[in-house]
Design goal:
This protein is mainly β. The chain has three domains: 2-112, Sandwich (Immunoglobulin-like); 116-206, Sandwich (Immunoglobulin-like), CATH 2.60.40.10; 211-282, no CATH class. Helix content is 3%, strand content 41%. The chain has helices spanning 2-5, 226-229; strands spanning 8-10, 20-21, 27-30, 35-42, 50-55, 60-70, 73-80, 89-97, 100-103, 107-112, 116-117, 122-126, 131-134, 140-141, 148-155, 161-166, 170-173, 181-189, 203-206, 259-264, 267-272. It is rod-shaped and about 90 Å long. 26% of the residues are buried. Keywords: Disulfide bond, Immunoglobulin domain, Repeat. Residues 117-210 form the Fibronectin type-III domain.
């Protein structure tokens, strides 16, 4: 039986009349991918040759293809498809002919599990249009090494989605909408095809409201800023923000998506593109 575990042959006519193998190499793939073994056979391929791949756990794979290497050798290719951790182990090539049986050495099949973070990212800072996060991805389920990191985020309500590569343990997600809730996850990648794991547990975070503006319904208040108030806003920093006087009450806080800044009488002005108004409670 020892001869069957090495690159050898077994026949009544002796090894010179029976095809035998060169040493096969081990294979490493990520779970779900196809593992390909290449077995080089000494001898010319005959129609009566039958080749297959045999795992020590009992799994077998038929030959996928053959190609000539030279006039004395050919290569057989065997695929173990849809691999799982349970397919890990030792495999060997076997050839059967009317002259006898040839058996290769064992090659190791190693199945790696793509990495997935155990914990969600951590929120470190919040603005109206950005969120700072700490990836928090040192603890994983699966196998390393980690060669790439990505941050996936989407709006909780809506269809907005994006995926950003990152090269640090902290990351700023910018150009977000104010007062909007986002769901953020981290994806990790290990070497070889199919090495990206599923998104880790999500973090839910909401951006802040945009800068506060004081809105007015029109030029109804007397005072030195009446001409500017015709635009429906007050200059930033105007004392009317505390008390408009003359029967005018401060406007409610509003959350705005955009602001337009203009220069008027050497002052900085700000007003909403779609108009300012009270925020409706849900």
């Amino acid at each position: 039986m020892r001869a069957l575990q090495d690159s050898s042959s077994l026949s009544a006519g002796g090894p010179l009349n029976t095809p035998h193998f060169l040493t096969i190499k081990g294979v490493e793939v990520n779970a779900g991918q196809t593992a390909s073994f290449h077995c080089t056979v000494n001898g010319r391929k005959r129609d009566n040759f039958r080749l297959w791949l045999q795992g020590i756990g009992g799994r077998e794979a038929p030959m996928k293809a053959t190609k000539p290497w030279n006039n004395r050798r050919f290569i057989g290719t065997f695929d173990v498809e849809n691999t799982t951790k349970g397919d890990s182990g030792r495999y060997r090539c076997i050839v059967h002919s009317d002259k006898g049986v040839g058996v290769s050495n064992y090659g190791e099949l190693t199945i790696k599990q793509p990495p997935v973070p155990i914990a969600p990212p951590q929120l470190t800072a919040v603005g109206a249009t950005y969120l700072w996060i700490q990836l928090n991805a040192n603890s994983i389920n699966g196998d390393g090494p980690i060669i790439d990191r990505e941050v996936e985020y989407r709006t909780v309500s809506g269809t907005m989605y994006d995926l950003q590569p990152v090269d640090k343990t902290t990351h700023k997600i910018g150009h977000l909408d104010p007062d909007t809730e986002y769901e953020i996850s981290v994806l990790l990648t290990r070497p070889l095809e199919g090495g990206t794991g599923a998104p880790g547990p999500p973090l839910r975070a909401r951006t802040r409201c945009a800068a506060r503006l004081l809105g007015m319904n029109g030029p109804t208040c007397a005072g030195p800023f009446r001409a500017g108030a015709s635009a429906g806003v007050l200059p930033l920093g105007h004392p009317a923000g505390r008390s408009l006087g003359d029967g005018c009450a401060p406007a409610p806080e509003v959350c705005l998506r955009k602001r337009l800044l203009i220069l008027f009488r050497l002052s900085r002005w700000s007003f909403p593109v779609t108009g300012a108004g009270p925020r409706q409670s849900s």
